[in-house]
Amino acid sequence: MAPRLPRRRCLMTQQMSVKTSKVAGTWAWFFQRVSAVLLIVFLGVHIFVDHFMNVGSETAGETLITFGDVSMRLGDFVYIFVDYTLLALVLFHGLNGARTVLFDFDMFIKRKKAVDVGLWILGVATLVWGIVILWPFIKGG
Amino acid sequence: MKIGENDLRMRTFKWLFGRNSEFWPKNMKTGMWAWIGHRITGVALVVYIFMHLSFITTASLGDGPKNFDALMKITSQPLFIVLDFLLVVVVIYHAMNGLRVVLFDAGIGIKRQKQVFWIAMGIAAVLIIGGIIALWHLVFPGGGA
């Protein structure tokens, strides 16, 4: 066995993660966990409904999902709710996760306000974008 | 003055990534690998969600509805199935390792963190095999091989 290098136990990562969690805050940590658990449930429903229940219709000799298939699924309020809630959860979880990564670096800790404002704008804008692009399916073309 | 600054920067680099640093592969333990994997898959999934929305945009706005069937045909090609499989692996790893993190934060299983990691990875492996079977049916509907 190769001789073990002297280990400075968790020196850097510990300092870094303590600092990051202090900057990011307790609510960010708490809602990251809540959204994580909810995401597993909603993503499970999303994948099951979109890829197992809806196996598509016959198009030119091939079985593919058509516009009509998606539209029919989204005719049900439950699936509209599932898709939009999933979008909101995924955006919160993803951007809050990115925020944590950014706060591992001093250059972003220094610009905390700008990071927070920027991510909120990006998140809300993307949520609106997602709501708009699903509308043609809900309306049915 | 300038030389001293560069010297310090070099030392910082070694401290972060050098042979004695925590990120040198030989010095990394299970939890560290799990953490790095969680970060990489997390960033990849944020990128993916924007790709996903972009794709839906081309299939829904403007002439999207008319081109929908053509777009579906493109995404049923082998290349996209491989990318789908990659997505399945990334999502399942991130979900299972994330569940492990949530358990630790709730005070469950910290003392046996390595075993918990490998149990989570075992569940992930089972789910990934399920994913392969599901994708197989999409590529070869009606049984296949």
Descriptors for this entry?
heterodimer; A: 141 residues; mainly alpha; two-stranded antiparallel sheet; 76% helix; elongated; B: 145 residues; 79% helix; 0% strand
Distance between the termini of chain B: 69 Å
Return the structural class of chain B.
Answer: mainly alpha
Determine the fraction of residues in helical runs of chain A and give it as a percent range. Answer: over 70%
Oligomer: heterodimer
Give average pLDDT of chain A, whole number: 82
Q: Write out the strand line-up for the largest beta sheet of chain A, numbering strands in chain order.
A: 1-2
Low-confidence stretches of chain A: none
Q: What is the number of helices of chain B?
A: 5
Written account of the structure:
The complex is a heterodimer of chains A (141) and B (145). Chain A is mainly alpha-helical. Chain A is built from six helices and two strands, in the order ααββαααα. In chain A, strands 1-2 form a two-stranded antiparallel ribbon. In chain A, strand 1 and strand 2 form a beta hairpin. In chain A, helix 2 (26-53) crosses helix 4. The longest helix of chain A is centred in the N-terminal third of the chain and has 28 residues, at 26-53. Chain A starts with 10 loop residues before the first helix and ends with a helix. Chain B has 145 residues and is mainly alpha-helical. Helices cover 79% and strands 0% of the residues of chain B. Chain B is built from five helices and no strands. Chain B has helices at residues 2-17, 30-60, 64-75, 78-105, 113-139. The longest helix of chain B has 31 residues, at 30-60. Chain B is extended and about 60 Å long. Chain B starts with a helix and ends in a 6-residue tail after the last helix. The interface between A and B is large, with 44 and 39 residues.
